[in-house]
Design a protein that fits this description.
By secondary structure, the protein is mostly helical. Helix content is 41%, strand content 8%. The longest helix has 18 residues.
Length: 96
């Protein structure tokens, strides 16, 4: 009688999958173009926020009310100061 050959099947392990490396998420900064047209629009946003509030506001408060960044707020404030439309008191800005 012939002997049966027995073979062991060894389950090959699939290589372990590595989780993709997490990339560092860089904070995205809003980029805006500085030109006369953009400065004028930001000045309008600042003016409307101050007119609606009817009180003196800080730069941060104006930015929040106008829904623009603080940098854009400063751009608009500069425009309005140059035109003489603003007054300051106690680190706050109001319409002149």
């Amino acid at each position: 009688m012939a002997e049966k050959k027995t073979t062991k099947k060894v389950a090959e392990k699939a290589p372990a999958k590595k989780a993709p490396a997490k990339k560092a998420v860089a904070a995205k900064k809003a980029v805006f173009t500085v030109n006369a047209e953009n400065a004028g629009f930001k000045a309008g946003d600042v003016y409307q926020a101050l007119a609606a509030a009817e009180k003196a506001m800080t730069v941060k408060e104006i930015a929040k009310a106008a829904k623009i960044s603080e940098e854009e707020t400063l751009l608009g404030l500069g425009w309005l100061f140059k035109e003489g439309k603003l007054a300051t008191a106690d680190d706050k800005v109001t319409l002149a």
